[in-house]
Write a structure and sequence with these properties.
The chain is of the alpha+beta class and about 400 residues long. It has a domain at about 265-403: Tetratricopeptide repeat domain (Serine Threonine Protein Phosphatase 5, Tetratricopeptide repeat), CATH 1.25.40.10. About 40% of the residues lie in helices and about 15% in strands. It has twelve helices and twelve strands. Strands 5-4-7-11-8 form a five-stranded mixed sheet, with no helix packed on it. The chain has a four-stranded mixed sheet with strand order 1-3-6-2. Strands 10-9-12 form a three-stranded antiparallel sheet, with helices on one face. A hairpin with a 4-residue loop joins strand 9 (about 155-160) and strand 10. Helix 3 runs antiparallel to helix 4 (about 210-225) and helix 10 (about 325-340) runs antiparallel to helix 11 (about 345-360). The longest helix is centred in the middle third of the chain and has 18 residues, at about 230-245. It is globular.
Length: about 400
């Protein structure tokens, strides 16, 4: 999965993110050089009789203990709550595991950690944990100079599951959010903290219901409770997530019809929802209800003919076996990306190239225009690079932004 799945977002991912594309079951963040002391209270302890009475993790003479910061109020300790300790990427914890999870004491303190070699304070990662499960993800909020942004409210949305609210730690990190299965997680920083907590209190028990029909009923009930526009969009997104996996053709069509009847919805917002629904069906393995997906995407394309929606519709045509039609639309989408190539287009452009290669393979053809690596896999150039080369060669008119 690539960052292209931002096409499925039901709201805007806000401004201060570093490498925050939705990634399954792994951390996704860059780390600054000196963030360890910023993100946790750190105590360097010498081994004593008192220390030996504590739970100990790892082996070695170098001894550490931490006070974890609260996920919601970083100026306070994370008391009697779950946390994870690890070292940052590229730093080996000699004598210790890759990561250790535990529960803090009444003062927010961790277990005792031992290492055979010294570990610098900035090389430790000490994070509070939210959610349940073995799969986890952390984001980091940064400014334009890649410095961590502290005390900023955020919302993390686990697809098909709960939402989590918090404030970024002094190093810019969010809490580490856990789930029972590999899950796409979306980070939002343009969020109202109070509204987030109110929504989480109402939404998360519904998403914990043991069955899709009960979840659908609960979400439909929430939609009638007068939420703010962003919260209403989030509930709509949760309802769509459940129906795309478990709903019938008629239930999904009814949901799309309710969008059209929604007062004040713009053409673009409706197109985005139709695109999210259609692509959400066709990207499943195997594609689910491809004829319905094609219909929804065709409606979205008529409202807002962007390259991304054109690519989505082409992918639905491919799922239906209409490969020649899909190829024509993918070529048109690629040309559309060359005309614009904005900062947010690169991931979608690369996925469109991947879709084109797969459609060509289905037609028994290869793409000779693309270079290949040693394994014969196409290695496409970036969108902006290709656009600029075509402009210099006279194949492409100057983009409007440069006129």
């Amino acid at each position: 999965m690539t960052c292209h799945n931002a096409r499925r977002l039901m709201g805007a991912i806000a401004f201060m993110l570093a490498a925050t594309c939705a990634v399954q079951a792994q951390a996704c963040c860059r780390r600054s050089v000196a963030e360890g002391q910023e993100q946790t209270y750190l105590e360097r302890l010498s081994p004593t009789g008192r220390d030996h009475a504590l739970a100990s993790v790892g082996e070695g003479e170098h001894t550490y203990r931490f006070v974890v910061r609260d996920a919601n109020q970083p100026d306070r300790p994370w008391r009697r709550a779950r946390y994870q300790v690890s070292t940052r990427e590229g730093v080996k914890w000699e004598g210790g595991p890759d990561a250790h999870q535990g529960v803090t004491d009444a003062q927010g303190r961790t277990a005792l950690y031992r290492s055979k070699t010294p570990v610098a304070p900035e090389d430790w990662m000490v994070l509070p944990l939210l959610g349940k499960g073995s799969q986890g993800m952390t984001f980091r909020l940064v400014d334009q100079d890649d410095n961590g942004v502290a005390e900023h409210p955020y919302l993390i949305d686990a697809e098909g599951g709960a939402i989590f609210c918090g404030r970024s730690l002094p190093g810019g990190h969010t809490a580490r959010v856990l789930d029972r299965k590999p899950t796409t997680m979306r980070l939002y920083t343009n969020t109202d903290e109070g509204e987030c907590r109110k929504l989480a209190a109402a939404l998360n028990p519904v998403m914990a219901e043991p069955g899709p029909q009960r979840q659908v009923k609960g979400l439909q009930g929430l939609l009638g409770q007068g939420w703010s526009r962003p919260s209403q969009e989030r509930i709509h997104g949760k309802l769509m997530d459940v129906l795309l996996v478990h709903g019938s053709d008629s239930e999904i069509r009814a949901l799309a019809s309710s969008w059209r009847a929604e007062p004040g919805i713009s053409r673009k917002a409706l197109a985005d929802r139709l695109n999210s629904a259609g692509y959400g069906l066709v990207e499943q393995k195997p594609p689910r209800l491809p004829a319905l997906a094609e219909s929804l995407l065709a409606q979205g394309l008529a409202l807002d003919p962007t390259p991304a929606i054109l690519d989505s519709h082409a992918w639905a045509l491919h799922a239906l076996g209409r490969h020649n039609e899909a190829l024509l639309e993918l070529d048109a989408a690629i040309e559309g990306f060359h005309q614009r190539c904005g900062p947010d287009d690169e991931g979608m452009y690369q996925e469109t190239l991947s879709h084109r290669a797969q459609v060509l393979a289905a037609l028994g053809r290869s793409d000779g225009a693309l270079q290949q690596d040693d394994q014969g896999v196409p290695a496409p150039k970036g969108c902006a690079e290709t656009r600029d080369q075509r402009f210099l060669s006279g194949e492409l008119a100057m983009p409007a932004a440069f006129r």
